[in-house]
Specification:
- The structure holds 2 protein chains of 2 kinds.
- Chain A is an alpha+beta fold.
- Chain A has 3 domains: 210 residues, P-loop containing nucleotide triphosphate hydrolases (Rossmann fold), CATH 3.40.50; 95 residues, Elongation Factor Tu (Ef-tu), domain 3; 101 residues, Translation factors (Elongation Factor Tu (Ef-tu), domain 3), CATH 2.40.30.
- Chain A is built from 7 helices and 25 strands.
- Chain B is α/β, with parallel strands linked by helices.
- Helices cover 33% and strands 15% of the residues of chain B.
- Chain B has a 6-stranded mixed sheet with strand order 3-2-1-4-6-5, with helices on both faces. In chain B, strands 8-7-9-10 form a 4-stranded antiparallel sheet, with no helix packed on it.
- In chain B, helix 1 packs across helix 2.
- Chain B is globular.
- Classes of the chains: A alpha+beta, B alpha/beta.
- Chains A and B meet through helix 2, helix 3, strand 2, helix 4 and strand 9 of A and helix 1 and helix 2 of B.
């Protein structure tokens, strides 16, 4: 069996016991080596954690930078790594309080699954609605809700059942398809890696057990490659290669972001103007020549006809995305600079960068109750709907069908800062 | 022709295939969007893997950027020999920033403990500036250290080369934004998401050549601070530190005066992987005296402009 990679994002705050949960997961999955464990034991003892000698404060596993401790702030997302026999995990640990939305959007953008924490004593709060709202917007394929601190409510099966029902109803309302709710105690290690001994009524998977079994969603749909880099032998061949063999070589390097591409496929190349037809002559993968590539592969494509193709163009096999100069999108503001009507921007979509203009702010989304309100400007951590005009025609798709075709960044043309992340939600009529 | 949206297609790829594809994507983005990239190359396993990925990202072309070695002057001979053979093999242009030359010119002063990792920072920043690099690739990984765990894949450095953890640019999807002020530069870390184990597994799979000191060999060593140090002109034992002949290997290569060896019988990649599976100490904890001084050792060096 092939060991696969799963990317997870966590959402929750220190109050829910998120640090302890992440620490417990890493500790029980044996991802913390002895020297780090010694540090944690020493600090735990210094701070008198747990009262008994040898009790570890597992929240220290995720203890941050000195700069953070000194200033009492948490600096955005930290990435952590652990693996089991079945799988390797990349965990984007998103802090809960400060700049919550910005961090969760960042962590969730690449996640195959998200873990949300709920405190068993409090049940579903406004904060839970907020977490789920953002994850739904980002369409994280799998949601795991860990109802933590079950030990503090004496593993009350009925109380858990109520929280579970509330969470599932909320997920349903938000259109999150796949949700699992697990009762846990991160502090005592119940149902994180080892099944709980004190709650035999729970017969579902442990958190790690579930994460090991989630199948990452494969990129389906239309084969799509955004050209990153045009490879021509004039750039100088690698030592030992025969220039004769590569005299007419022209390869288009990029990542196949969706679908499957096969040698012989008919393709369309989307540049700024009309689509141009060609056919796939050859595919190279990092392992060498191949007949076929699938979503996620970093490849080089050769076409049968010589076309004027540049970085930013898109090669598509199958149903064509329509090129747009004006469209609506949801955005999350990531910078302290406000976004206002008429503002000049750069948009980065796939591998294309174009001048753009924010035509109108249609509304701001209240992440607590999902209502829409009119707004003059959008500020840091705001989620809102805008209408955007782009100088170049962009081959956009709906985010639900294509994470790459349906996402973009808005960049400040002067400072170069990333101002906002955008998601294309609904059908935009061709402009 | 109709396509069913989200129809599951293809098969789940292996961890190494997924990491390799992500790294190549990042490398191609950087090569395409920056004016003058360089690669920081120490001859250490991580920078060797980045070079291997760079070659794959542009194949069949030659690696189109220079490699820069920040030379502490405290080298293992085997590593310098290896560096030169790699430069030859790939047909690279090598730039060396020499800490020794700075000391000889009186522009840097030797530290009291004689180690030079920290002195590299000045030389590194000058090398970047003098060569006009607007971006340099590095082999740092997020699993190395808690300061690195918060590092971006494209990490901005201001005109002083300073890393400001409070002011990092969010990175979403596979969209990287490397725009920056004219006198700033960017560090690009394409293997951010690889673990030490992934690196070794990839070295095995791709049959990548490494300096011989990564594999078990017999060497004159002495024990200091619970770490085995090689006897070299820059690391000599004190009277109470007896010299012994031991079978050792290195988990990292760096300044020979403060890089420790581990006792090991692993004389090939597959045995190194077996040892890693049962390792109980982190890579930096085992082998880097400078990271043991304080939990914030790496954080401090990074904010000064270190790798």
């Amino acid at each position: 069996m092939t060991t696969t990679l799963l990317r997870i994002a966590t959402a929750g705050s220190v109050d829910d016991g998120k640090s302890t949960l992440v620490g417990r997961l890493l500790h029980d999955a044996k991802a913390i080596l002895a020297d780090s464990l010694d540090d944690i034991a020493r600090t735990s003892a210094e701070r008198g954690f747990g009262g008994t000698e040898g009790t570890l404060d597992l929240a220290l596993v995720t203890d941050g930078l000195r700069a953070e401790r000194e200033q009492g702030i948490t600096i955005d997302v930290a990435y952590r790594y652990f693996s089991t026999d079945k799988r390797s995990f990349i965990l984007a640990d998103c802090p809960g309080h400060v700049q919550y939305t910005r961090n969760t959007v960042t962590g969730a953008s690449t996640a195959d699954a998200a873990i949300v924490l709920v405190d068993a004593r409090n049940g579903v709060l406004e904060q839970t609605r907020r977490h789920l709202g953002v994850l739904a917007l980002l369409r994280v394929p799998r949601l795991v809700v860990a109802v933590n601190k079950m030990d503090l409510i004496d593993w009350d099966e009925k109380a858990f059942g109520q929280i579970e029902a509330e969470v599932l109803a909320l997920a349903d309302e938000l259109g999150i398809i796949s949700t699992t709710v697990i009762p846990v105690s991160a502090l005592q290690g119940d149902n994180i890696v080892e099944p709980s001994q004190v709650a035999p009524w729970y017969t579902g998977p442990t958190l790690l057990g579930l994460l090991e079994d989630i199948e990452p969603k494969l990129g389906g749909g239309t084969a799509r490659l955004d050209v990153q880099y045009v490879i021509r032998p004039q750039g100088g061949l690698a030592p030992g290669l025969d220039p004769e063999q590569y005299r007419d070589y022209r390869g288009y390097a990029g990542t196949l972001v969706d679908g499957i591409l096969t040698v012989g496929d008919n393709v369309q190349v989307l540049s700024n103007g009309q689509p141009v037809a060609s056919r796939v002559k050859g595919i190279s993968t990092p392992a060498g020549e191949a007949q076929q590539a699938q979503a996620g592969d970093a490849i080089v494509v050769e076409l049968e006809t010589n076309l004027d193709i540049a970085r930013g163009d898109t090669i598509v096999a199958g149903e064509l995305p329509t090129a747009h100069r004006e469209f609506q999108a949801n955005i999350c503001v990531l910078d302290s600079a406000k976004l206002t009507n008429g503002q000049r921007l750069l948009i980065k979509h796939g591998t294309k960068v174009s001048a753009a203009k924010l035509s109108t702010i249609d509304y701001v989304i209240n992440v607590a109750d999902y209502s829409q309100q009119p707004a003059e400007s959008l500020e840091l951590n705001d989620l809102g709907r805008i209408t955007l005009r782009s100088q170049a025609a962009l081959a956009i798709e709906q985010y639900a069908t294509s994470r790459t075709g349906g996402s973009f960044l808005l960049i400040d043309p002067t400072s170069g800062r990333t101002l906002a992340a955008g998601i294309i939600e609904e059908n935009n009529e061709a402009a | 022709m109709t396509t069913i949206a989200n129809a599951p297609t293809g098969t789940q790829r292996s961890v190494l295939d997924a990491l390799e594809a992500e790294s190549i994507h990042i490398i191609r983005e950087v090569l395409a969007e920056f004016e003058k990239p360089g690669l920081l190359f120490s001859g250490g396993k991580d920078s060797v893997v980045v070079l291997h990925l760079l070659a794959k990202a542009v194949a069949p072309l030659r690696v189109p950027i220079p490699v820069a070695h920040i030379d502490t002057g405290h080298n293992f001979d085997e590593v310098i020999k290896f560096r030169d053979s790699v430069v030859e093999k790939y047909g690279l242009n090598l730039v060396v920033g020499s800490v020794q030359e700075y000391i000889d010119r009186g522009e840097l002063t030797e530290l009291p403990d004689g180690t030079r990792n920290r002195l590299q920072t000045r030389v590194l920043l000058d090398t970047i500036e003098n060569n006009g690099f607007d971006v340099v690739f590095g082999g740092a990984r997020r699993d190395e250290d808690k300061a690195r765990a918060k590092e971006r894949i494209l990490s901005l450095r201001d005109e002083f080369g300073v890393w400001d953890p409070r002011n990092q640019r969010p990175e979403l999807w596979s969209l990287y934004n490397g725009r920056h002020e004219p006198d700033w530069h960017v560090r690009a870390f394409p293997i951010s998401n690889w673990t030490e184990r992934d690196i070794w597994a990839y070295i095995e799979r791709e049959n990548i050549e490494l300096p011989p000191i990564y594999f078990a060999h017999t060497r004159e060593v002495f024990e200091r601070d619970g770490m085995w140090r090689a006897v070299t002109p820059v690391s000599l034992p004190n009277e109470n530190e007896p010299v012994e002949l031991k079978q050792v290997r290195y988990r990292t290569v760096g300044d020979a005066s403060c890089t420790g060896a581990v006792l090991s019988a692993a004389d090939n990649v597959s045995k190194v992987l077996d040892e890693l599976a049962i390792a109980t100490v982190t890579e930096r904890g085992a082998t880097r005296a400078d990271d043991r001084i304080s939990a914030a050792g790496m954080e401090d060096r990074k904010t000064e402009g270190y790798f």
